[in-house]
Design brief:
The complex is a heterodimer of chains A (218) and B (413). Chain A is mainly β and 218 residues long. Chain A is built from 2 helices and 10 strands. In chain A, the strands form 2 sheets. Chain A has an 8-stranded antiparallel barrel. In chain A, strands 8-9 form a two-stranded antiparallel ribbon. The longest helix of chain A has 12 residues. Chain B is mainly beta and 413 residues long. Chain B has 1 helix and 30 strands. In chain B, the strands form 6 sheets. In chain B, strands 12, 13, 14, 16, 17 and 18 form a 6-stranded antiparallel sheet that branches. About 2% of the residues of chain B have low confidence. The chains are: A mainly beta (218), B mainly beta (413).
């Protein structure tokens, strides 16, 4: 992030001298929509055997405030020695970002934001239990309709690299996870959040995006 | 190019941060069970012959004394039933009781990782009493419904007070006027009733004795390792009384007395039974006032050292049988003539390698009653011994008899 900031600052300095920005008139009218996809999910799907998923996001600006929405799917499969675990579901995040590069003519963004996230998924765990005291048991455990919700504090960068194409990242601090299911299995992994054994956790997305302008550049 | 390099770097960093949980302790299913007494909430030590569970062929504990145990709940089921076999001392022999602790709980599985596998988490543990199946313990209290690993304290099992256990302590009187003397550590060979052995070899200053709940008297025989044998019989009354509501009516024993007692002296301090047992009865030994210790020494260079000798026989002039035969020792304890009309006692000692020697101890003796219960006892003072020969030279170190015995005479060989 630190290395990318000077690039944005340099562009701002060269353009602002030629085209002074109108900071008063119609400032809350959206200037563009960004739609993107998470490259890390794509890479993990290719190279991590136990993971499969994708994530797309969209942002629309209202002056320096961005309404952000993210949607993704993911499934995980694990094979411990005595069984198999898998989950499969989707998740949705919505939130607001505050841009701290509001005068950047390339619409580069450095933001801090907040998300409310929800997930719906199913999971199953087939396990052979061998216990020296209580004997052996082979049984499938299924959670068919699990719902989860959590919150995120986010920060990130969006940088235009060529015409309408840009790259960026989002770092997430996830907390406040709550899951709801009535089965005999405690959820292990929540799509969009990660492992449930942690009260809070970190996440990172690396995004390739396209910006669709809604206003003519002045 | 420079920008692309940094973007790729961030991508690699992001991919590398995959989330793997630690392998923490699996199967949080251990519970801690502690034993306490209902009437005073104090820790109770229980003799557990056997602790097992329904569904498990083995045993968790066998023949141990414990005030708490750690037990695993059956995480593959919704209930666990533990069987406790407890032994308590009884007048006619050990009384074994079987108690059952039934617990219900919720068990959930969770996948941990490929390396760790699964774990089971148990919650909502409860006492099973809702199906009219009562636990057999006097009282059970669940202090924490969540097992863990290691076991926390989840359950406290209470027992009603024992109403039939008497405490008897041993005390030694001295050559002073302290009426209760001091604690007396006795080496016991056995303590028995007509039906069973309550104590084996032990060195104790107090014993706890269960009363015969089917009679109004109980007799105990004490065999001490010094050859002393004593008997005491207790008499008592029994009434039915509710001490604690949850214990219902219990037989309470009181008005304790002693009869048929062969101890030197026995005193009832408290005639009612309590739990934990307080000292109900004290036995006393009178001081021995006529014993002296004679030690044997030899010269090594210019200094004297202890000498171990073989005493073939040692007799006293007033006794018909030898005091010692074939004894190897560096010192001996000798009893002076208890007859207060004599003022000397002569000992004949046959020492291996030296021959037969005579030790005459002269003294002044008076009678004195240190303790009324001991009566008048001889007190020896102003001890002297005649000089011996070159191979047997007695010297008086302390010229009066004391209790406990001291080194009164030293013989240089």
């Amino acid at each position: 992030m630190i290395f990318l900031l000077p690039l944005a600052g340099f562009a701002q300095q060269s353009d602002s001298a030629k085209h002074p920005v109108d900071t008063v008139r119609n400032k809350f009218i959206p200037t563009g929509i960004r739609v993107g996809a998470d490259l890390i999910s794509f890479a993990k799907t290719q190279y991590v055997k136990s993971f499969s998923g994708w994530e797309a996001n969209a942002e629309i600006d209202f002056y320096r405030y961005y309404l952000a929405m993210e949607y993704g799917t993911w499934s995980r499969t694990y094979f411990p020695d005595n069984g198999a675990y898998e989950n499969d579901g989707n998740y949705f995040r919505v939130g607001v970002d505050v841009n701290f590069l509001k005068k950047d003519p390339d619409k580069n963004v450095f933001f801090i934001g907040f998300r409310s996230a929800h997930s719906k998924f199913k999971e199953q765990f087939y396990v052979d239990v061998i216990d020296p005291l209580w004997g052996n048991q082979s049984q499938p455990y299924v959670n068919d309709n699990v719902r989860a919700r959590w919150f995120e504090m986010t920060t990130g960068l969006r940088v235009r690299i060529w015409k309408f194409v840009g790259l960026g990242y989002t770092a997430r601090f996830k907390f406040g996870l709550k899951t709801k299911n009535d089965s005999a299995m405690i959820s292990s992994d929540v799509p969009g959040y990660g492992r449930t054994n942690k009260e809070n956790t970190w996440g990172f997305n690396y995004i390739l995006y396209f910006r669709i302008p809604l206003q003519k550049k002045r | 190019m420079k920008r692309a390099t940094w973007f790729v770097l961030f991508l690699l960093v992001g991919v590398s941060c995959l989330d793997q949980p630690d392998c923490f302790r699996q199967n949080l299913n251990l519970i801690g069970v502690s034993f306490k007494k209902l009437h005073d909430n104090k820790v109770d030590t229980v003799a557990l012959l056997h602790v097992s569970a329904n569904g498990y062929d083995g045993e968790f504990y066998k023949e141990v004394l414990a005030s708490s145990v750690s037990l695993p709940l059956n995480y593959l089921r919704d209930t666990t039933e533990f069987l406790f076999k407890i032994s308590e001392a009884g007048y006619s022999g050990p009384v074994t009781t079987e108690r059952i602790l039934r617990l219900s709980h919720k068990s959930k599985v969770q996948f941990v990782s490929e390396e760790c596998g699964q774990r089971f988490v148990i919650t909502d543990m409860a006492d099973v009493i809702n199906n009219n199946i009562a636990n057999d313990f006097d009282s059970v209290r669940i202090t924490s419904k969540t097992p863990s690993n290691p076991a926390p304290n989840n359950i406290t099992i209470y027992r009603c007070p024992h109403t039939n256990v008497v405490r008897l302590s041993f005390r030694q009187l001295y050559m002073d006027t302290v009426s209760r003397g001091r604690i007396d550590l006795r080496e016991i060979e056995t303590v028995t009733t007509p039906h069973t052995t309550l104590y084996g070899k032990a060195t104790v200053n107090t014993v706890v004795l269960p009363l015969n709940t089917n009679a109004t008297s109980s007799t105990y025989n004490f065999n001490f390792t010094n050859g002393d044998n004593r008997t005491v019989t207790f008499g008592y009354e029994s009434t039915s009384k509710e001490i604690l509501k949850s214990c219902g009516l219990q037989n309470v024993y009181s008005k304790l007395t002693t009869t048929n007692n062969t101890f030197e002296f026995v005193k009832v301090l408290n005639d009612s039974i309590y739990d934990p047992p307080i000292t109900n009865v004290e036995t006393y030994r009178c001081p021995t006032t006529n014993q002296i210790r004679v030690s044997f020494r030899t010269l090594q260079g210019s200094s004297e050292i202890s000498k171990e000798i073989l005493i073939k026989s040692l007799t006293a002039d007033y006794l018909g049988t030898p005091l010692y035969s074939n004894l190897t020792a560096t010192s001996v304890v000798l009893p002076l003539n208890p007859n207060t009309s004599t003022t000397s006692t002569t000992f004949t000692i046959d020492i291996d390698g030296i021959g037969v020697k005579t030790l005459t101890v002269n003294y002044a003796v008076t009678g004195r009653a240190f303790h009324v219960r001991c009566g008048e006892q001889p007190v020896y003072s102003a001890m002297t011994t005649p000089a011996g020969d070159a191979t047997f030279q007695p010297t008086v170190l302390i010229n009066n008899v004391q209790f406990p015995v001291v080194d009164n005479i030293e013989i240089l060989l």
